[in-house]
Every structure is written in C-alpha cells, then in structure tokens.
Design a protein that fits this description.
Blueprint: E1 3-9, E2 12-17, E3 27-36, H1 41-47, H2 51-54, E4 55-58, E5 63-66, E6 83-91, E7 103-107, E8 113-117, E9 122-123, H3 130-133, H4 136-149, E10 156-160, H5 164-175, E11 180-184, H6 188-196, E12 201-203, H7 210-222
Parallel strand pairs: 10-11, 11-12
Antiparallel strand pairs: 1-2, 3-6, 3-8, 4-5, 6-7, 7-9
Length: 223
C-alpha cells in the first residue's frame, strides 16, 4: 500500500499507509517523485505554534480570533506538504491533454501518489527541473506582492525577509523596473544570495536600524 507522512502530534511525523481511491472520470493518478513542504507556514503548524491551531481566521475582521469553545479540543492532525512533482500512471475517462508517463506537478501533502482532477495538474516543460516546479507556489505569492504594490519603472523598494518568497520578490522587483532594490534579513547567506541575484543594497536588521538606513538612502536619492 502507498504511504504518506502525517503528524498526529506536534513535532512527531509518522509514516502511514492509505488506500487508493478509484480513478474516476476526469481524474488522474500520479506517482510522486519529489515533494516539498512550505518551510515557513507549515513549520509553525508542525511545531504546534501556528495561530490557526487554537484560533480561526475571521473573514469580516481579517484577523485571527479565539476559537469557539466547542472547537478548541479538536484532534491535532497535520499532513505536511505544499507541492509535488511526479508522472501520470493512470487516466480516467474523458481526460484529454495528458498522457500516461507524462511528468506533471501539483498541490498536495507528501505522499507516494495523488489521485486528483486532471484539470488541476500543472504541465511541466521538458527543461523544467523538479526544484523549479515546487517553487511555483512561492513564485505566485512573490508575483502577487509585486502586482499589489503597483511598483513602476524607476521606483525604489525594500524587501524585508529573504526566504524563498522574499528572494523571488527582490528579483521580480528588478525585472519590473525598480531602480533601487534594498533587501533586509538577519541571515548573512540570504543577503549574499539576494545581492548575487540583482539586489542593490543588503541590510542586517540585527545590527542596523533599517528605518534610519532607508531614510538616509531616500535623502541621498532626493538630492
């Protein structure tokens, strides 16, 4: 039987078997070759300190609020995993545009197979590596940040936090035409990577006053 990773207690992952569902019309089964969790959001859930474990996100107020009393004692169960890459092993009736053996990517937890709607699968160019494919999700968030900021040709910007999304945001800011891209992160290796990939100035919030440094840069640019 295929296996998957489930955390039934914080910080305690285990390997469990599961039964395959039938491949129904419009669906496909994929044998997973590579999978990756989100190192930020999911790590908080894994450790048991994420707000959504004991709180809920209120759509009206747009913030986390305490859970109702009857919801507080729900059993903890977490399937880590964000994106995966694999190859199609079976197609249901009516599926077009895909073939058995084709390499695809998708969203889902870390498990050996996924049976999902075929129109949810992401086609991969032959030259795309699995590492590039599992970066699709953070790349979308980076792009969303650039578009929501309305960054324009010649603008200056600062990207705070240089995980995967921050690194991609800094690169996209340059591609979008930013004249100056400043980045900030306490981890030296992250700052170095950002500079290697187009950022102009890297600041260390552990040793520098970021607000003051940005004010100084703005003063210079306005002279």
């Amino acid at each position: 039987m295929p296996r998957e990773i489930i955390c039934k207690q914080p910080r305690q992952p285990g390997i469990y078997t599961y039964e395959e569902p039938p491949v129904i019309e419009g669906h496909a089964r994929v044998k997973v070759d590579f999978a990756a969790p989100k190192h930020g959001t999911e790590m908080h859930i894994f450790r048991g300190d994420a707000p959504q474990i004991e709180e809920y996100f209120d759509e009206e107020y747009n913030l986390f609020l305490p859970q109702k009393e009857e919801e507080k004692h729900k059993e903890y169960s977490f399937r880590p995993g964000n994106m995966w890459v694999g190859h199609i092993t079976e197609l249901g009736e009516g599926v077009t545009g895909f073939s058995v053996g084709e390499r695809v990517a998708g969203y889902g937890p870390i498990r050996e197979t996924h049976t999902t709607r075929a129109d949810w699968l992401l086609k991969m160019p032959e030259t795309m590596s699995w590492q590039q494919a599992v970066c699709y999700d953070p790349c979308q968030f980076a792009l969303g940040g650039i578009r929501d900021s309305y960054l324009r040709l010649g603008d200056t910007c600062c990207v705070i936090g240089l995980g995967a999304i921050g690194q991609m945001t800094a690169q996209m800011a340059k591609l979008a035409g930013a004249s100056l891209v400043v980045v900030s992160d306490p981890i030296e290796a992250r700052r170095a990577i950002a500079l290697e990939n187009g950022a102009d100035i890297a600041l260390d919030p552990a040793t520098q006053d970021i607000g003051l440094e940005l004010k100084k840069l703005n003063t210079i640019l306005m002279m």
